[in-house]
Specification:
- By secondary structure, the protein is mainly beta.
- It has two domains: 71 residues; 79 residues, no CATH class.
- 10% of the residues lie in helices and 40% in strands.
- The strands form three sheets. A six-stranded antiparallel beta sheet has the order 9-8-7-10-11-12. It has a four-stranded antiparallel beta sheet with strand order 3-2-5-6.
- It is globular and about 50 Å long.
- The relative contact order is 0.16.
Length: 171
């Protein structure tokens, strides 16, 4: 189940931003939710769907000249929204590997098709990548995945197939 959180910046100095938003699970693991969110986007209200039910709160941190950090907590009474059961196809042109370059090379050489529980408009941290179109078999055993159609490389949990971050190294 997922829940939505709207982050709204109500006060900010001239040197604040951009901002990184992270979550912390009940077992004290930090999960990146969004990076490089502009000050104007946060001032307008930035809505994020949080797919990891174990996230109990986290931080919003300015990464510019001003480096203030503000904590946030999971809204009380947050009503989970059902995660859609639809599966989106990515490929051919997808690949995976244990290094970002390996995922890119695999996409070129093997021209794989992968699948996810997230569509192109919502693909990101928290999405699951599958090797089958039914969404029964998560992609495991690899640290990076290149998603064809989105032309981007992502860090992936090698045990669960869940996207953990937008990779710092792209093809």
């Amino acid at each position: 189940m997922a829940y939505n959180v709207i982050f709204t910046l109500t006060s900010a100095g001239l040197d604040s931003g951009p901002f990184n938003i992270s979550g912390t699970t009940s077992s004290n693991v930090t999960v990146e939710i969004a990076n490089n969110v502009s000050k104007s986007t946060l001032q307008a209200g930035y809505e994020v769907t949080i797919s990891n039910d174990n996230i109990t709160g986290g931080t919003v941190a300015s990464t510019g000249v001003c480096t203030n950090t503000q904590s946030w907590v999971k809204p009380t009474g947050a009503t989970p929204t059902p995660t859609p059961n639809s599966i989106t196809t990515y490929g051919p042109g997808s690949g995976y590997g244990n290094l970002p370059a390996g995922a890119c090379n695999d996409a070129t050489i093997n021209n794989r098709t992968l699948y996810s529980n997230c569509d192109a408009g919502s693909f990101g941290v928290g999405c699951i990548v599958y090797v089958d179109g039914a969404g029964n078999t998560p992609l495991t055993g690899y640290n990076y995945v290149f998603i064809g159609g989105l032309l981007s490389t992502w860090d992936i949990n090698s045990s669960t197939g869940q996207i953990t971050a937008y990779s710092s190294e792209q093809c």
